[in-house]
Amino acid sequence: MSKKEQLINDIQNLLNTYDGIHKTDINPALLEFMDEKTLISIIDSLLDQKENSKESDMEWLEQFKKHDN
After folding, report:
1. From residue 56, how far is each of 2, 52, 59 by CA, in Å?
2. CA-CA distance, 51 to 1, in Å (whole number)?
């Protein structure tokens, strides 16, 4: 598997880690025209989104913790 194919596969895997979302299948031909730098940028963006989502989930959970005291 080429590095580009691996990056496309990584993007697909990241998209499929969201809870409650139907499995995503990406046609590799749709991303084939992108260079490795662009694909890596997409991965970075997806990871940032996951991190931000995780942080907001933690903030939401902390609200309940404060009410228990």
Report:
1. 36, 6, 5
2. 28
Q: How far is it, in rounded angstroms, from Cα 42 to Cα 48?
A: 10
| pTM of the shown model | 0.66
53 — pLDDT class (breaks 50, 70, 90): confident
3-class secondary structure per residue, 15-49: HCCCCCCCCCCCCHHHHCCCCHHHHHHHHHHHHHH
Name the more confident of 58 and 10: 10
CA 59 – CA 45 distance, rounded (Å):
21
Q: Nearest-5° angle of CA 22, CA 25, CA 30? A: 135
